[in-house]
Amino acid sequence: MLDIHLPLMLFVLVLFLILLVLLNNMLFQPLVKFMDDRDASIAKDLEAAKGLSGNSDELNAQAEENINNAKAEAAAIRQKAIDEEKASAAGKVEAKQKELNRKYENFIEKLASDKEDLRNSLMSQMPLFKESLKAKFSKL
Question: Could you tell me the end-to-end alpha-carbon distance of the chain, in angstroms, rounded to an integer?
Fold first, then answer.
């Protein structure tokens, strides 16, 4: 039936050990080295990403601060412009009111002088009116 051949078994054992050593040197050690290098690279990249995210938080905070400063500065500039325009408008309104008051006073003076002229004119023509009234009453 089956015969066990000792030399053949030894040859297979030696061949197995040689194959094991060759596979270890050519396949397993480079594969293990590659996986270790990959793990180290991943760990290094994670540390770099954590550093960048920390730096990103600082940059976000700095950007937020710059935006807030710009908003405050814009509000101050806008308020200054509004105040200047209010002052300018108030000056224009005051000047217009003075001009209108001056025109009103001139109008009142002219009206008073016209009233006086009209009164004088009527007073000078009063005798004519009296004569004309007398003439009309006498006709009745």
Answer: 180
**Closest CA relative to residue 127, chosen from 135, 115, 117, 118:** 135
Question: Identity (one letter) of the amino acid at 25?
Answer: N
- CA separation for the pair 84, 79 (Å, rounded): 9
- In this model, does residue 52 exceed pLDDT 90? no
What's the predicted TM-score (pTM) here? 0.44
Report which residue type is found at 138: S
Q: Whole-angstrom Cα distance, residue 26 to residue 13?
A: 20
Half-sphere exposure of 113 (CA within 13 A, CB side): 5
Q: Which two tokens stand for residue 120?
A: 């004088």
Continuous segment of H or E residues that includes residue 20: helix 6-23
